[in-house]
Design brief:
- This protein has 179 residues and is of the alpha/beta class.
- The protein has one domain (2-176): Glutaredoxin (3-Layer(aba) Sandwich).
- Helices cover 32% and strands 21% of the residues.
- The protein is built from 5 helices and 8 strands; from the N terminus they run H-E-E-E-E-H-E-H-E-H-E-E-H.
- The chain has helices at 2-14, 76-92, 108-117, 131-135, 165-176; strands spanning 32-34, 47-49, 55-57, 66-71, 98-104, 123-127, 145-149, 155-160.
- A 6-stranded mixed sheet has the order 1-8-7-4-5-6. Strands 2-3 form a two-stranded antiparallel ribbon.
- Strand 4, helix 2 and strand 5 (98-104) form a beta-alpha-beta unit.
- The radius of gyration is 15 Å and the shape is globular.
Length: 179
């Protein structure tokens, strides 16, 4: 089973998918897709245990722009993008943006050590068997990947593959501005 996961991760991370055309060419890097407000699909119910030992249901975050990032401590592209995401999370928290991670197919101790090493302060759901990721039909069965969810709980954008601070800031800003 681990061999299948490794193959899927290599495929997802090595060949970013073509991006949808947007008015900002900077949003088209790294497999970004931006959904027009009228075409945004609802995020399915996403809930479960957190690394900190609590429970989180993303519907409790309605009214906020939410960035949902799928990662793992053993994933090299995840390690590369994580400091940028932590920086964007800190820079946008005063605007009501909430970042949530999904720790995919990982072990608790390495995951917690990884988060401490990048000074992450946002909530992370635990997905030891891929159930949450399989439920997110907008994302491939690979990591890293991210969704930007509008205040109504609809998927406004997705990024397949690693992202950058500039790209995520642009995506979040677009949703915050109501676009």
């Amino acid at each position: 089973m681990l061999g299948v996961w490794a193959l899927l991760l290599v495929a997802a991370c090595s060949a970013p998918q073509a991006a949808a055309q947007t008015s900002d060419p900077g949003l088209n890097r790294v497999g970004a897709t931006v959904y027009a407000a009228a075409d945004r699909p609802m995020l399915p119910t996403v809930s479960g245990p957190t690394l900190a030992g609590g429970e989180l249901d993303l519907t409790s975050l309605r009214g906020h722009v939410v960035v949902l990032n799928v990662w793992a401590s053993w994933c090299a592209p995840c390690k590369a993008e994580s400091p940028a995401l932590v920086g964007v999370a800190r820079a946008t928290t005063s605007q009501g943006v909430v970042f949530v991670g999904i720790d995919e197919n990982d072990q608790g101790a390495p995951a917690k050590a990884f988060l401490a090493g990048i000074n992450s302060n946002y909530t992370n759901l635990v997905d030891p068997d891929g159930t949450l990721l399989a439920h997110l039909r907008f994302l491939p069965q690979g990591i890293p990947s991210s969704l930007v969810i509008d205040p109504q709980g609809r998927v406004a954008a997705r990024v397949i593959g690693p992202t950058t601070a500039a790209q995520m800031t642009a995506l979040v800003s677009q949703v915050l501005s109501g676009k």
